[in-house]
Amino acid sequence: MVVMILTYCYRIKPSAEQEATMCYTLERLRRHWNYCLGQRLDCLRITRCQIDRCSLISEPIGEIPAQVNYYTQQSALKETKKLFPDYKNIWSESQQVNLQRLNKAWERWLIPDKSGKRGGRPRFKKVGELRSFVYPRVNCQRAGAHLKNGILKLSKIGEMPIIMHRPIPDGFTLHTCTIVQKADGWYCCFVIQDETVPEPMPLDEIHSAVGVDVGLKEFLTTSDGKTVPIQQTYRKTQSHLVRQQRKLARKKAGSKRAEKQKNFIARIHQRIGRIRENFHYNTAHKLVKQYDLIAVEDLNIRGLARTRLSKSILDAAWGKFINILEAVAVKRGVRIVAVNPHGTSQNCSNCGVKVPKTLSVRLHECHICGITLDRDENAAINILNRALSVSEAGRSPVGLILPARGGLVSGLPAKRELPSREWVQLSLF
Ligand SMILES: [Zn+2]
After folding, report:
1. FRET partner for 165 with CA separation of 20 to 30 A, picked from 75, 88, 121, 269?
2. CA of 354 to the centre of ligand 1 (A)
3. Both 31 and 143 in a single domain?
């Protein structure tokens, strides 16, 4: 079943007292996280040893501790509340979700995923590192959180105004409510779900297709030669940030002033993030409005980010942009096709011959067919062609035959399969 899952975040205005309660809740949950993580690590340490570390003579086994997993830890919550009555003042489902989060991090660490990758070891959290807690049910019987007429009612915390800067769309059901502490105040994020996802546009109704190449000179170049300039948000504020960091270094660690300065810096980072995200959404909407099919590169951002250009690459945040583009497109039924970017900038988009060039060469000049194009535009056309071609056996997701630029050729699609997504998720602020 296909469902659409969205996250809508709103600012909340807790009273000073409520704010204290929420900070207190976060602190208690953090301690509980650390305790439970320690319990799991101890259990692992006592019961395992590495393959090549085994003593020859004897093996002291000692008491084998009881197994520790999510279920034992959850049932131990009762005991915790007896020993530490503080925990009675925290909504029990929030405590369970806290343990579920730990369990998830734990499994990501120990159990490899389909491609054999594993996450890092879950970490102990320092003071202030846990910044959110969850009410897993909203607006139903026995739910911990209720949203009604601009008032958010949280069990164990109280009622507080919520700023509904945009309404929750019709037909969506509220699933979870996460309370987050950010640099500029408290937010509550609702995960909302709807069963009706716009069907992707039928292949024979696709009238316009575009290839998009992302780069460092221009943020993106389309196959019809349009460009969107890059926004170096981070680069622009870098000197400002450095100055403020230096100010922080001069202040006494842990003092009130240092805290204040830290918060100031966190807000700068927040602003940079928001400007960038806004730019991504605007660009994505512009593209999605104009075209029915958008071809993008399947980028290896991590690999790229390890090079010398890393700061600029991370600043442009193409990976995030492509996620946002995908999400925006799904909402409108526009198709996104990711293609293998290998050789897209080197090959000639007109005749296919390889024209080697370094990054500094901005012009594509083909010595075979004599075409001269902007380097990025050439790559964008290649990306579009790749998305549309049927020649690449098995890899081509769309079997449409379109000319490289412009209009649609009538002709039955050879293949109708698109990699179907089971669900989509995007964050809106
Ligand atoms: Zn050529």
Report:
1. 269
2. 8
3. yes
Greater model confidence, 109 or 402: 109
> SS3 letters for 36-81?
HHHHHHHHHHHHCCCCCCCCCCCCCCCCCCCCCCHHHHHHCHHHHH
Do 382 and 307 fall within a single domain? yes
Please give the full DSSP string across 342-371, using - where no structure is assigned.
Answer: TTTTTB-TTT--B----TT--EEE-TTT--
Task: Tell me the CA–centroid distance for residue 344 and ligand 1, in Å.
Answer: 13
**Which residue's structure tokens are 């509340």?**
81
Q: What is the mean pLDDT of residues 72-88?
A: 92
CA of 400 to the centre of ligand 1 (A): 23
More confident residue, 51 or 302: 51
Provide the pLDDT for residue 159: 95
Domain membership of residue 389 (yes or no) is: yes
Tally of domains in the chain: 2
Domain containing 352 — which CATH number? Answer: 3.30.420
Distance 222 CA to ligand 1 centre (A): 19
Q: How far is the CA of 141 from the centre of ligand 1 (A)?
A: 67
Nearest CA-CA partner of 178 in 115, 100, 83, 261: 100
In angstroms, what is the span from residue 287 Cα to ligand 1's centroid?
28
Average pLDDT, integer, range 118-122: 89
**Within-domain flag for 395:** yes
pLDDT digit string (tens) for 194-225? 877 777 777 777 788 898 888 777 888 888 88
320-378 per-position pLDDT tens digit? 888 888 888 888 888 888 888 777 888 888 888 888 887 778 888 888 888 888 888 88
Pair 30, 158 in one domain = yes
Distance 407 CA to ligand 1 centre (A): 22
How much distance in Å is there from the Cα of 216 to the middle of ligand 1?
24
Whether 288 and 378 map to the same domain: the answer is yes
129 and 210 fall within a common domain: no
- Taken as a whole, the chain contains a residue count of 429
Dist. CA 88 → ligand 1 center (Å)? 72
